[in-house]
Each structure stands twice: as structure tokens, then as C-alpha cells.
């Protein structure tokens, strides 16, 4: 009897320790120790480059981009193609562009895919208890569309392609 009373008091004392908000203990402790800046929020800038002559500098244009601003899309194109800037595709890319657009180009493809996915998710909402308890059913919904890495690697190897080894499960 004494042990049951002690257990009841222990549960009561521990339940009184919880906060009324939804933040966890880890979030509260990490929020109280925010004395240093977040090193991931600081982006490195491009290095400053001094031209040969200061007369070569373009006139300042308010609101325009700075020469040291980050340009991730242009940097990606330069890294992949070797060309700088967001230039139009060159003539050597013609075969690739015609092969990609052989079935026509749908300018509103994103809205079409978004609508089709919303309809697919509406038809495959998951079981009742999964919806009631707000369980993430994304893995279950898209399980038939998922590629099996071992099967796909074996199929590509049969075609004579070199495939890196599949990581273990």
C-alpha cells in the first residue's frame, strides 16, 4: 500500500513538472543558451576583386545586384557547362533540347503535376486511425512508385552498365 501511494505521488510530482507550451526540454535549454551567432546563417560572399582600372567599374545602379552577391544558379551553370552567365543554349545543345521536347513542352507542368498529386493523395489518404492520429503516411502512399535499389541495380548491370554498389539496408 505504501509503495502504491509513493508511486502515485511520484507520477503526480513528475506530471507537475511539464510545461503548458509545446516546446520540449531540449528546445527550451537550447533557446536559453543562444549567446553565439548561428554559424549556418552566415553565407560566405564572393571575394572582392579590384579591376585594373577604376574607370572599368560600371556606374552604380540603385536596387541592382552587387558584383559580390551570391548567384547560385549562374555558378551552377558555370560549373556544369563551363559557360559563365545565364546565356541561351548553344547550337551544340540543339540535339539534347529537341530530344527533351520531342513530345511537346507543357508550360504549366508544375500546376498539372501538383493537381495530379493532390488527386492521388486524396484517393490514397491512409487508414482511419492513421488519419486520426496524424501519422505520416507518405511512405505508404507512394510505396508502389518507389524504386527498389537492388532490383534496379541488377537490371542496369544486366544491360551492361557499371553501377556503384548499393549500400546495405
Overall shape: it is extended
Please indicate the percent range of residues in DSSP E strands (runs of 2 or more). Answer: under 5%
The termini sit apart by 50 Å
Main beta sheet strand tally, sense and closure:
none
Count of helical stretches = 8
Radius of gyration: 29 Å
Give the oligomeric state: single chain
Region (Disordered): 51-70
Organism: Algicella marina
InterPro entries: DUF3035
Protein name: DUF3035 domain-containing protein
Describe what this molecule looks like in 3D.
Residues 51-70 are annotated as: Disordered. This is DUF3035 domain-containing protein. It is built from 8 helices and no strands. By secondary structure, it is mostly helical. It has a domain at 127-162. It is extended.
Summarize the structure.
By secondary structure, the protein is mainly alpha-helical. The protein has a domain of 36 residues. It is built from eight helices and no strands.
What descriptors fit this protein?
0% strand, 8 helices
Give the helices and strands, then pairings.
Elements (H helix, E strand, L loop, with lengths): L1 H15 L8 H8 L39 H10 L12 H7 L8 H15 L4 H5 L5 H4 L7 H10 L11
Amino acid at each position: 500500500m505504501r509503495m502504491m501511494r509513493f508511486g502515485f505521488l511520484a507520477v503526480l510530482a513528475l506530471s507537475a513538472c511539464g510545461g503548458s507550451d509545446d516546446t520540449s526540454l531540449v528546445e527550451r535549454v537550447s533557446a536559453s543558451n543562444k549567446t553565439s551567432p548561428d554559424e549556418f546563417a552566415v553565407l560566405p560572399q564572393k571575394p572582392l576583386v579590384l579591376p585594373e582600372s577604376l574607370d572599368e567599374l560600371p556606374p552604380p545602379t540603385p536596387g541592382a545586384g552587387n558584383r559580390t552577391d551570391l548567384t547560385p544558379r549562374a555558378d551552377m551553370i558555370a560549373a556544369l557547362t563551363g559557360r559563365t552567365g545565364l546565356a541561351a543554349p548553344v547550337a551544340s545543345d540543339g540535339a539534347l533540347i529537341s530530344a527533351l521536347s520531342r513530345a511537346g513542352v507543357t508550360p504549366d507542368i508544375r500546376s498539372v503535376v501538383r493537381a495530379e498529386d493532390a488527386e492521388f493523395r486524396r484517393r490514397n489518404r491512409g487508414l482511419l486511425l492513421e488519419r486520426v492520429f496524424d501519422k505520416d503516411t507518405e511512405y505508404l502512399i507512394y510505396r508502389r512508385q518507389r524504386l527498389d535499389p537492388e532490383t534496379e541495380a541488377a537490371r542496369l548491370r544486366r544491360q551492361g552498365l557499371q553501377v556503384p554498389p548499393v549500400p546495405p539496408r
